[in-house]
């Protein structure tokens, strides 16, 4: 059995490397060494070592609220974090404890890892998993991650393994000089994992990568809202809006007008580039996902597909909806209701094309505390505790 488990771990590392997700040997060594199956004890090892996110907890409505993240995404963020031996690390969101175990392996015996989670039962389960894996030195705390954990400060590195809408002041207060913060940051409904360092009076980004995480709960939860449309479609909006979900389901069941865009970007280009372009420029933007294999699907030829769902994005107007689709490989726009909404989406696609399809790789994020004057230029996103300036 040990040989088989070693082979499964090595196969996972090979998959991560094929994605180009980790270049730091310390990260790869941690993935090769730490036994993920001990953090997912209810699953067979073959499933635990797949390069997939695995939901481990749902709320009363069946919505996922905790998981073991996809190893590739974990590797990307750990690469961004650039942990070194002997450092002190704070993790926001304990999950199964697996990421904390990876961090503990990376910092070694002279370092220290503290993990904070809002839910006591999640902390208890993570403790059991960490103990089973021989990681008794990881400190687990039940509490609001937006407050950090002052008793263990200062930290050389802080990482959030839950989607954050805002940058908590406590994280900067508890970060050591020269330290680094890595968070899955909400940019009007889309997330990018951003590595920040302090630059004078503000945070400035070192790198950004696409990602997708469950949102932080508690006082620092963002304004995002979701609605069930019909029986199989979930509508996600970056802010709270009144939506008649039943009426929208009826509209999506109608035959749409189809307009070609004259371009055929890859699914990766759409996810990495256009989704962010649309989200930060279009106040009415929305995304929709539908369970794969639905008997009567409402989303037609969605441009993004995953094993369990199909996903698209577009504009939800007061009297019309426009969604991205594909027709014979070409990116198309499906218009429902007022054709002006579909024309607006076409304008966004063509502007993104004309700009050279900018993506996350060229994105810079500067985060200034609320009330501090910011330089001119860039796209401004207002948060509660800070103001983000996005430039490409």
Automatic annotation (TrEMBL):
Pfam families assigned: PCMT (PF01135)
UniProt keyword annotation of Cytoplasm present: yes
One GO cellular component term noted in the UniProt record for this chain: cytoplasm
Keyword annotations of the record: Cytoplasm, Methyltransferase, S-adenosyl-L-methionine, Transferase
Alphabetical GO biological process terms: methylation
Statement: the UniProt record of this protein carries the keyword Methyltransferase: yes
Record EC number: 2.1.1.77
Enzyme class name: transferase
Subcellular localization: Cytoplasm
GO molecular function, one term: protein-L-isoaspartate (D-aspartate) O-methyltransferase activity
Superkingdom of the organism of origin: Bacteria
Main location: cytoplasm
SUPFAM superfamilies: S-adenosyl-L-methionine-dependent methyltransferases
Cross-referenced CDD domains: AdoMet_MTases
Family: Belongs to the methyltransferase superfamily. L-isoaspartyl/D-aspartyl protein methyltransferase family.
The protein's name in its UniProt record: Protein-L-isoaspartate O-methyltransferase
Organism: Actinophytocola oryzae
């Amino acid at each position: 059995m040990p040989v088989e488990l070693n082979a499964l771990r090595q196969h996972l590392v090979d998959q991560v490397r094929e994605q180009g997700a980790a270049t730091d040997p310390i990260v790869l060594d941690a993935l090769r060494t730490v036994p993920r199956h001990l953090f997912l004890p209810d699953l067979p090892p073959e499933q635990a070592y797949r390069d997939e996110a695995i939901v481990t907890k749902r709320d009363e409505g069946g919505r996922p609220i905790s998981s073991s993240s996809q190893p590739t995404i974990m590797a990307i963020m750990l690469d961004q974090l650039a942990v070194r031996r002997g450092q002190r690390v704070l993790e926001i969101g304990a999950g199964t404890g697996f990421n904390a175990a990876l961090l503990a392996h990376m910092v070694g015996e002279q370092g220290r890892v503290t993990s904070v989670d809002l839910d006591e039962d999640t902390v208890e389960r993570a403790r059991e998993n960490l103990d089973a894996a021989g990681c008794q030195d990881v400190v687990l705390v039940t509490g609001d991650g937006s407050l950090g954990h002052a008793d263990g400060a200062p930290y050389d590195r802080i990482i959030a393994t839950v989607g954050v809408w805002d940058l908590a002041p406590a994280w900067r207060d508890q970060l050591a000089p020269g330290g680094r913060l890595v968070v899955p940051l909400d940019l009007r409904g889309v997330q990018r994992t951003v590595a920040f360092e302090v630059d004078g009076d503000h945070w400035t980004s070192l790198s950004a990568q696409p990602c997708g995480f469950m949102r932080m709960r508690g006082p620092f939860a963002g304004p995002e809202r979701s609605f069930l449309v019909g029986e199989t479609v979930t509508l996600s909006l970056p802010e709270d809006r009144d939506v008649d979900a039943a009426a929208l389901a009826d509209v999506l069941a109608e035959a749409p007008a189809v307009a070609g865009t004259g371009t055929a970007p890859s699914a990766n280009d759409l996810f990495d580039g256009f989704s962010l372009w649309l989200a930060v420029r279009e106040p009415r933007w929305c995304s929709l996902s539908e369970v794969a294999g639905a008997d009567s699907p409402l989303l037609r030829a969605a441009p993004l597909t995953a094993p369990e769902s199909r996903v698209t994005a577009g504009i939800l107007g007061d009297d019309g909806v426009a969604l991205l689709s594909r027709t014979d490989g070409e990116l198309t726009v499906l218009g429902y209701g007022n054709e002006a909404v579909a024309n607006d989406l076409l304008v966004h696609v063509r502007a993104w094309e004309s700009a050279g399809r900018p993506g996350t790789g060229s994105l810079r994020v500067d985060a200034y505390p609320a009330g501090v004057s910011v330089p001119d230029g860039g796209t401004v996103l207002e948060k509660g505790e800070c103001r983000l300036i996005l430039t490409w």
